[in-house]
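We emphasize that the prediction below concerns an isolated chain of 511 residues; any contacts that depend on oligomerization or on bound cofactors are therefore not represented. The input was used exactly as deposited, without trimming of termini.
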Amino acid sequence: MSLLVDMQGIEKRFPGVHALKGVQFDLIAGEVHALMGENGAGKSTLMKILSGVYERDDGIVRINGKDAHFSGPREAQDEGVGIIHQELSLMNDLTVAQNIFIGREPHNRFGILDEAALNRNARAIFDDMNVVMDVTAEVGSLTIALQQMVEIAKALSYRSRVLIMDEPTAALNEAETNELFTIIHKMKSEGVGVIYISHKMDEIKRVSDRITVMRDGEYVGTLNSDETPISTIISMMVGRELNHEEMVAPDLTKAPIALEVNNLNRGRFVRDVSFSVKKGEILGFAGLMGAGRTEVARVIFGADQRESGEIRVHGKTCDIQSPSDAVKAGIGYLSEDRKHFGLVLGMNVRSNIAMASMQRFTGFGGLLDEAGMAASADEYIGQLGIRTPSDRQEVRLLSGGNQQKVVIAKWLLRDCDVLIFDEPTRGVDVGAKSEIYRILTELAEDGKAIIVISSELPEVLRVSHRIAVMCEGRLTGFLPAHASQEDIMLLATKTMHAPMKSTSHADGTMP
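Result of the prediction step, given as a token string:
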């Protein structure tokens, strides 16, 4: 039993934050060791130390029994440590092959880039992964799921003996996740050690051999996966009992319609889509990757231009040509890609929360009411449990889950009547998920009309009062809150070649 990684007494501090407090972790060759904890627990920080992104303040790191002091990621890669980051770090204007081998491109004997060899080497990696990929395509033209596969291929190209996977399946569907697990099992058989970070309990139990839990920057314990129930893992992570109450759909028979969409069209991903959402209702949107759910949301919000169709808010037709038009109409949109579309990473928490409501804080002569912004930020930091030293902390320094809460706070402050949440708990731990579910329920009880798009069927079933299912750009049916996962999958795989036969009308009433 060969010990690949041994970390002891690891300390790390940032301004105002003691991120790691004497943490320990080890990895054995040929195992998958899951690293778990709530957002802000220190998991990513610990792995960035191991992969050379951060330097530790104190403690010991040994790789294959030798002390390791990395001054950068390249030194860690040279020692066989690779990392697939939670947030993609690809160059959109380069091809898939160029991204994988950037800085290591093959050249011919004249010193000229050998493009054919570059593409051939990239194809070999994807063949090994059993993934179909056009290695000559620009990365910016790929879906998030395919970009994730490129990140994985890039890490595998280094022939790493230690591979860190930080939320590798966040953008993958079930089939793609199964392919990834096949790849992981192959690496295990070749003696590679995999450190697997995920908030998906079923994945952790399925793929890992051991589990180490962290909480608030400290080591809690290490357990064997096959001997440990999920309830024990959750208890160690959050240190408290979570509310797992099932969603009870309220009686919305007499509730007025807040949002109505009629015959919406845009390309092949939005085809003749019609639905409505009532005040106080949570409408879940389910479907496989590429079904068109996000595309519908972006058209409603004005991020993409519709080709035809009508959008009505509180019965009034709205000519939404841009996101600012949507916000003026009372529609807020929490994007699935918070880094690019939900936040300004270089700005602080206070400014990000106030961003969509700046008119409220702008006085005579364009002066900002900083005190008012601070008071609002403090309110939502407390309400949502955002872990930050202060509202002056730059958002880029927060964990992924806390960044997600800042985006939610932004739209709560704007007080929109219609809220679209696209993958609201992606990359968020079980404790934060429970809090977000509570927030969604309270918003609905306050009369907000809410759309929740999620790739996790249990999540759709838990939070929704009613479920709309899409396949290949079309709505294939509506289901009640007590539907099963099988009911959803039947509609999610129903290719539409004929007029839709829905299980209920667009307004939720039965035919």
